User: Fold these one by one.
Assistant:
Number 1:
Amino acid sequence: MTTPTVPSTTPATTPAGPGRQALDSALFRLGQAADRLELDDNLRAMLATPRRSLTVSVPVRREDGRMDVVQGFRVQHNTTRGPAKGGIRFHPHTDVHEVTALAMGMTWKCALAGIPYGGAKGGVSVDPASLCALELERVTRRYVNEVLPIIGPERDVPTPDVGTDERTMAWIMDTYSVNAGYPVPGVTIGGPVNPGAPDRAGATSRGVRVAALRALGGSPEGRTVAIQGFGKVGAPAARYLADAGCLVVAVSDRTGAVIDRSGLDVDDLRAWSEETGGVRGYLRADALSQKELLELDVDVLVPAAMAGAITEENAPRIRAGLIVEGASSPTTPGADHVLADAGVTVVPDILANAGGVIVSYLEWLQDMQARSWSAREVDARLRGIVEDAFDATAAVAAEHGITLRQAAHVIAVGRVAEAHRARGTHP
Ligand code: NAD
């Protein structure tokens, strides 16, 4: 008898890694808020558990005839306050734990901003840089087919995240529409077919700017900024902070990091990065390591890349007085502790990077009312929502002597818990 050949695929279960750590961090922060709110065990269990979690296998037909099978996920953490909303990331290390943690973060983000959405997230464990456009399209369309039963304009609306963009959203919209038999532009936000509000793409970064300026207080003129990550969040954030008068002195991405103490020409650097594939080698600035960027003596540090950038290990060397989290979960709970002791203010992700989902909500409001606000009006509303959320968070933090992150979670978790109580449990 011959031994069967076992097909080589990604494992059905993922080992404990950064994703599990991200989920443990999210649960730790939920637990802290639940303790302060004195939530009962039933509510804690509801809030700690995603309402729906779908893991799918996505076969990728490669151009050379090979077939890889990667895993995809869509997690709806909570829909008690409204339909789920959240990005889709394509990243080789993404797993169900990371996606669950990110979905939970979306729930708190929407609740803190006071917008009637729940939290979701999706992911495919694939490196988009390793695929050609055709392969990427096949992965996207097959993933959408697999998660089709749980997404839709009234249920769960995907948006771009790490490794996905406008083009991905267009493929998602098209695949969903082909299955439905009619065009469904509202199934995604952030694509070229349904581009939404003017400059929707920069909305998250505009929220980062509002949060940073609120936290800085006083004039932003000449305040120095270092930004980790020069993608969809980091690059526009650099532009907006420079527009506000700040000096963006250093930027990093996956290729390297650059510094100019007199202030980088952000547009020139972006053009270089788009042309060459990254900031490395930029001629009008000095090189430094990505690690050094995090430890620069600047007024503001904006982590806008991946989770877990600031840890217990490097936190003692952070010299920025203010950290504004453009990325999701860039700071570990251990680092939070070190930074709080050192007097570093951290504007948490669920407050600092809420701009994207807020502008999505403003688009939906315009659709419902069959009216159209100007870019200026949308911007003013975005600013109002982020500033109000910031002020409410700062007030709770001051009242209880806790960090902005803890305060933001107390408000957000409290709102979701209240919605659970009001709706009751079925059956
Ligand atoms: P992106 O893929 O467009 O950009 C990520 C950037 O990080 C790239 O410039 C990449 O080169 C850089 N990077 C990767 N590894 C790095 C490293 N080790 N050191 C320095 N830079 C590194 O992704 P994005 O959409 O900008 O998302 C970035 C973060 O912001 C993620 O945590 C995401 O969840 C969060 N976020 C994004 C949005 C959005 O609207 N896109 C909204 C809220 C939160």
Number 2:
Amino acid sequence: MKMKGEKISMLTAYDYSMAKILDASGIDVILVGDSASNIMAGHETTLPITLEQMIYHASSVVRAVHRALVVVDLPFGSYQGNSKEALSSAIRIMKESGAHAVKMEGGKEIIESVERILTAGIPVMGHLGLTPQSIYKFGTYVVRAQDEEEALRLKEDAKILEQSGCFSVVLEKIPALLASDVTGILNVPTIGIGAGNGVDGQVLVMHDMLGINNDFSPRFLRKYNNLHDQMINSFQDYIKDVKSGDFPNNKEQY
Ligand code: KIV
């Protein structure tokens, strides 16, 4: 798709019902993101989600999907600093969920883990820029790589990930010009989130773009719906009908 100049569409999903609709929509890639930690479980960060919980979400998604590529995040603590554990985490995801690839956050510091996972024939997607699993190192979710030193490091990391065999790299919340430069120096596709339009594809968190989360509105987010308000209206209509005795009517009973 990169060679043809065709942009790649990617969205997150964490459960069977949403993944079924998403797959039917024609999406290219479904990411079972560790953002499930925030979106599905209400944690403040992505750090608490476990390998078992990621496998549960991933296997629910895989059961719904017939055509899209399914990529699953390796969660925090399942791959950093120990390439043997990284391989065994990736194998568990592939074996127990049936997904097609894993995604990992970081650059040269995780290369040993990336390479070991690749030896097992498991495709790896990289993730650079704002890497939420390192939020306590950054201290903030602001745009990354705004200074020259960090931008240079990010370019080097992107090259190292490609050379190690990653099939794609997510670029999160970095300046559009830098993301475009990185896209130009890589042969594998880049997928951006808050990284401008010079990348090979885009990813958003499904619940954010559907407007289910009405308290999250960063500049990079385009909301394609306002499901929060639509759902509140539906729930309130239901409550009203139950309270008034209008539901169920004669046709809605046996
Ligand atoms: O976990 C996630 O949803 C992600 C995307 C934001 C890229 O990693």
Number 3:
Amino acid sequence: MKLSNTPLYTASQIQQRVASLATQLSQDYQGREVVALIVLKGGLHFGSDLIRNLTIPVAVDFIRAKSYDGAASTGIVEFLIPPSLPLNGKHVVILEDILDTGLTARAILERVQADRPASVAICSLFDKPARRKVDLEGQYIGFELDDHFVVGYGMDYEEQYRELPDVYVLEPSD
Ligand code: 5GP
Ligand code: MG
């Protein structure tokens, strides 16, 4: 596999979109007690850039989910890092890299809802609606993607490419 010759989204395109998502969130969550829950590892850069653009105070926490998806995607998800803050009564905004099948996000949503937050929303930089296997929507979406596998800006292929500032499509090498 190799990277596309040119980025699918450049760092500056991403920064613009992230800033506008942050503006929207800052308006919608004005006056509320918010926990920004960054989903590791893919949400590393997105989460950190997004919270720096907010104009409202938030608490920050992390969650790390590991999904076991063999041939038949089971949707069984283990939490390698569970949230450390009490989410009860808080307005939780989940900050994710990509919504793909939706199985991981659904499991995270269920885990968060078990803590009885005041509200939960999903904010994902990328969304691949055509790949969805469960009925789940993000409330805040950066960009919709076709069925491409993308890397960079926190997103990996076998733990490579997370450090790249731009987002590339991973293509078969010829
Ligand atoms: P889902 O449970 O929605 O199928 O999977 C979501 C997770 O799969 C994402 O958080 C991400 O870690 C991984 N994933 C899905 N699509 C892509 C992609 O195009 N590129 C990368 N690097 N990871 C992806
Ligand atoms: Mg991954």
Number 4:
Amino acid sequence: MKERLQRLRLRMAEEELDALLVGSPVEDIFKTYGANRRYLSGFTGSVGWLLVGHDVAFIAVDFRYYEQAQKEAPHFTLFPIKGQIGDWWADLVRQAGLAGKRIGYEPQGVTVATLEAIQKAVAAMPSQERPHLVPAPPLVEEMRAIKDAEELAAIERAVALADEAFTAVARRIEPGWTETQVAWEIEKYARERGAEGLAFPTIVAAGEWAALPHAQPRNRPIREGEPIVIDMGVRVDGYCSDLTRTIVLGRPNPRLQQVYDIVLTAQLTAEELVRPGMTGEEAHMLAHRVIAEAGYGERFGHGLGHGVGLLVHEAPRLAPRSPDVLRPGMVVTIEPGIYIPGWGGVRIEDMVVVEDGGVRVLSKAPKVLQM
Ligand code: ZN
Ligand code: ZN
């Protein structure tokens, strides 16, 4: 954490910021909005603000979190707060020695209401003390995109558990099981074996429902011969995994086998050819080309992949028009798909880590239609 603060300060200096305010736009009950705060401090509570200056680092939390913040964020000075941010903002600025300085805030990390409350509190300060509030670029998101060894180890544990849960449950599914039943069996398996929770609600979509990339599981029995898309992930030590497989019960019809083979070829091609230095768009096009040449270009309507870490969707983006440059240490998904309304769909998703010269595939769940 200390090293992360030092790296952040170097970037803050480049952006001519004297400090950065980091929080979450809403109370982070489900640990999805407070990733920057957790990444910098280690604090896992649902509410709290970090104010990081060049030689100070404060964590502002209310009574519920005094002890937890001191334990989890030892490199931060506790600033106990009561009430809304407007009530204590001026005191924090003075105590941090930031009167009259440039303080960056994260546009994604505050609501309009919060920003207005801060601005109001600033306006009430004597004019020579007022800090200058400026929107900061996504400094912490950029840092989070490249994983250190400890983060990668947590991700690998989350990937391994997802592989295991998928494989164990997929082998047991029989005609007549409902989509919700499959989703619940996966969740149960993962929770019983150490997952803190799911990375996102499991998608199980059979038959024509598989044409919806983010389908909700239904109470509908699964039939032989239809595609079953299962997209799932678990959370281990704060880090997410993300895995998709498409399977079938009994024999696939010829069209399903054909579509599956195209998606698998596109997926393996991308895993073979993605390199550090490529943009997200270039990576996307590796798979898109294979699918387009097979005549299904219009049916691959989403991006090839996304970063995964504390959040299941984070930087970088592998998608048309994404300028993000892939770098060693990034962990991303490679997940092409073909979706045909009224018929169904196929998606295959692995997580990979970008290394010098290529990617290493982390996901090990079998890539076969019939389990
Ligand atoms: Zn997924
Ligand atoms: Zn994904």
